[in-house]
Each structure stands twice: as C-alpha cells, then as structure tokens.
Amino acid sequence: MKTTKILFFFALLLSICSCSNDDSPNDVTNPTITTDNPVTYTDNPYATLGGKINDAGNQNITETGVCLALTANPIAVNDNNNTSIAITATNNAFSDTFDFAGFEGQLIHVRAYAKINGSLIYGEDKTFIPLEANNPNSCNTVIVNTDITTATTWTTGNVYMVENWIDVDAPLVIQPGVIIKFKNGNAGLEVFAKITANASETNPIIFTSYKDDSYCGDSNGDGAASTPAKGDWGRLTMRGDQHGSIFRYCKFLWGGASNGGVIVVNTGTGNIHDFTFDHCTFAHTAGTNTYYTAAFNGGQMYDESISVVTNNIFYDNAIPIYIQAKYSLNPNNVYHNPDNAAEINKYNGIFVYGGGLGGRSVVYGETEVPYVFNVGGNATLSVGSSDFLKIDSNVILKFGQTSASLDLGDYSNNANISGTAVFTSYRDDTRGGDTNGDGSTSSPATGDWNGYGYWTTGHGSYVWVQNNVFYDSH
C-alpha cells in the first residue's frame, strides 16, 4: 500500500506525474472505464482510489490513473485546479492508497482515466471526504442544545453533538459527511420543518451515539471505557407536514431509547407525511416484539407516493418496520446486513396494522421477509368495495391472533392473489423464518388464526380458501 502524501491543489509548480494535457475523451467509444468507489479510513486521512478498464481488447493502453479536484469532473492535467496521478494497471484494474493530510473534511472529486490509442477516456465523477486520525479532537464538535428556529446548515467536517430534544422549526440542511451524535436517551430531533439530508454512498450522513468512536473519534473523551449500545439516544419524530424532507444515504445507529424506535411518523394534517427515506441504514435500534418499537415506526403513513421508503437496509433491530395495511411498502428494501447476510432483525418481518385498505390499490410484494399481522387493535386484512389488493408471487403473510383473517367479504374480484402466496401462523418458522424471535420455544398449531375466505355472490355462503393456507381454524 502506498501512502503518498497528496499536496496538489492550487500548486502550479507541483508535478506528481507527467500526464497529457488532452482534456477530452476524443473519439474513443470502446472500451470504457469505471471509477472505483473511494474507500476512506476513519482512523487516518488515507483514501484508496482507482478504476477498471472494460472491454479493452488489443487496444494500446499507455497510461492509467486518477484525476482529482475540488470541483466536479476533474481532468488529467496538473494545473491550479486539477491533479492527476498515474497508477499502473494489472489486468486492466488499478488502485492505490494515498495520504490526504491537509485536506481532511474537504469534499474531493475523483475520476479514473486511461490513455488508449493516444486518447483519454474518463470514468464517473465520484466524491469523498478524507477524515482526520481517530482521536478525541479528530473532528470539530458543534454543540446543539437549542431549538432550530431559523434556516440552518450543518456543514461537512463537523460533528454536531445534540444534547437534548431539539425542535426543528425551520429548514435544516445537513451536508454530506456530517456526523450527528446524540448525548443520551433524552436527545433527539422533533421534526416540524423540512430537513434536507441528501448524501451519497461514499459520503453518508451519520446519526449515532455519543459513545460511537468509529465516526470522528472519541467524542466523549473516555478512550475505550464506553462503547455504543442500543437505545443510547432517542429518535427523529416526523411531526406535522414535512414539506419534502429528504434523507438519502443516511445511517441511523444505536438509537431507540425507551424502545421508541429511531424514526417515528407522528400525527400530521390529514394524509400528509411528505418525506423520503432512500438508501438509508437502520441498525442497532432498541426494541421489543411490540409493533410501536419498530426501528421505523411508519404506522401513520398512508400513501407511498408521499411517504417514500425505498432502498433502505434494516438489520440488528428488534422489529425493522411497522406500517398500515393500506400502505404499499416498496419491495426494494433489505432486511439483513449486506456485509453479513446472517445478521438480520430479531423479529424479521414487516409488521402490519390490519383493517381495510382505505379505498386504495395496495400491493404486497416483499419476499425476503413476511408481512406480520400481529398488531394490537386489528390483525385482520380486509377488502372493501372501493379497495384493490394485489399479493405477488411467493409473498408470505403471517397471522398471530386467533380471530385474525384475510377477509375478502363480498369483493373477491377486488383481489389478485398469486397462487404461490402463503398464509400461515406467526409461529410457523418453516415459512419465512422465526418471525416471533423465540427460536424453537413455540410451534404452530391449528387454530392459531382464523383463515382466508370470502362470501359467494349475493352474500351467500362463506368460502374458506385452502391452497397454501396453514394452521388456520378452517
């Protein structure tokens, strides 16, 4: 590993390598080049950069490397705006690690480049922020202990230490790479105004515990004496009408104090909870087998086009997410740690408050985990005259109360249910896993739930469906 110290920006006389001044890709259309996702290190200002040439064939590759700048789309020249670094390729792939001391906390753009047949081609523009060495003072700390009442920006390179409950009453912009640490279980955000936390995969925004030394060092100054634990801090409560709050590539870690979840969707005006959670990670949240302790308590979301929950990752929580029966949860969310597929959630299912569909067309399409109807108040899924229910192939619905059922009533034509969908008991570990989280302590039995049925035409006899239906009363 090379740890060349990077001292390049705005230095006209500095020459790290000799690169062509040809700053256009010319007519090379094949092959192409991909820029690697930059890898940064939490305990030093190093970053690993590189790329890969695709479909090179027998073309003449004379140079490969990376271009760097403080602005988008750097080019392969050395001037006061750009720097390029040659890296030798092996099997058309190349990478190296560099020391960015002096540029900690700055947003840097990188593109892979290659000179092929005398012409330059470039990969995608990607960004990263070098971090300081892992020590108590590795990031500048900003104390937050008063409500946000005017438009505010939390800026890259800082740790924002939230010491108590903070009302966000005015727009808050959180820049990519910002770390937010919460001091205790009585610290969190009550969100009444728009938050814009729009980050990237390589430069996420972190919401975590005061004791979490893995992000910007030992903020509580006790060395290794403390480590983060579930419930170390409170939550973000999405109150009122959000007016377009967005959380993209954010990580919510070690929250859920008093088993209250880390995101709670609370009362708004009518049907409006206008926000987006996309490509976020929810992990290590305190909770129990009670629905309202879910890491993402979305029980007051009704419309998936307004309350957007997509491409998120849930692992090492109790219950990952709680929704209403009328909400179509996107099936592109993930319920395990992508780096360790065995690390899931204790009650690994989508917990659903049952009832009618509110005159909406609703789709159940998730197949990684089951939908669990074991929520206090209503564990039945029913279809009315103005509803439409679609259950996709291989979807599993589990029911946890003896009175619970899938009831199509007089409206069986208002449903499109796949023949491979499964309906079973909450205690059935053979279908959809150990959703009640008790290992082999409990086992399913006939009568665990009521069943799946509908009335014949004209409210005639009630028909109980038997295909792929298990442990019901009928």
Automatic annotation (TrEMBL):
Residues annotated as signal peptide: 1-20
Keywords recorded for this protein, A-Z: Signal
Organism of provenance: Flavobacterium terrae
Record-given protein name: Right handed beta helix region
